[in-house]
Amino acid sequence: MYASKTKRYPAQSIQGILSHFLKSHCTQPLPGDILSDMLGITDKIETQDQHVLNVGELLAQHDIAPTQQRRQIAQILFAQPQHLSADQVLERVNQKGTVASKATVYNTLGLFARKGLIREVIVDPSKVFYDSNTSPHHHFYNIDTGLLQDIENQELNLHGLPTLPAGVELDSIDIIVRIRTAE
What we know:
Layout: H1 14-25, H2 32-39, E1 44-46, E2 52-54, H3 55-61, H4 68-78, E3 83-84, H5 86-95, H6 102-114, E4 119-124, E5 127-131, E6 137-142, E7 148-152, E8 176-179
Parallel strand pairs: 6-8
Antiparallel strand pairs: 1-2, 3-5, 4-5, 6-7
Helix pairs in contact: 4-5, 5-6
């Protein structure tokens, strides 16, 4: 009796099967744009403010290798100014027909934050958001709804900061104003 050998692909989707096939059967490297076109991935997205953003170039400018999954995560994050949890990013990536692991999403978000592409906003020890707006600003966090909203930097005036300890310099100030829904 012969045992059947079923090949498992990195993502159980047409994109995953095609990607696996091309990588394992092509003797010459394919230009990234051809593979991306075949997989239905584009580096160009139109942002909410009508600008065209090239995700591959943005990642390269920050010394990040533009893998398929990193580009997909970046497309989700930069399509509009937003605050997303890692689980929300994971859900949106997987809705696009590919399969990304939770570890891949967390690692990619951590990399993007370290490289300055996004901001990590920790509203409490168990709730972290990833903010696509990296300009100086603060946040309202509604503890009843979980909604995180931007406060423009000029809307909040800070006076009388404490004297910094010797040998350090100020990096940033992040203020989270916790609110609840009025009854």
